[in-house]
Amino acid sequence: MHFTTLVASVTALAMSVSAVPSPATPANTRYVQLRLYGEPGCSAQNLGELGVYGDYVNSCQSFGDNEVESVSFEYAINNCTVSVYTGDSCDAGAQAVALNTCLSGDEEFHSYEVFCSSL
What range does the record give for the signal peptide (predicted)? Predict the structure, then answer.
């Protein structure tokens, strides 16, 4: 009877070890979450959330074809910060977005950069 219990315990342990998720790496870690809007004020024309992962940190990124007029900075880890730009290549109209706030500009935002000093 003890042998059967031992076999069952070892089998259960082996199955639980294989179910443990792999550790997060910088490439697949969500450092920042933004929500984009097509109107000022972060209330109308919700364009959806934008999760920024390790591969997109500390470099300029485009909002693509989205007409972004306001940005809500919803979540960050490692004290990451966000700047949005009116220029396509993070080259004009820089504005910092504070965590848990909405930023609306006089012009559409075309690019953004997430800065994480720990990476």
Answer: 1-19
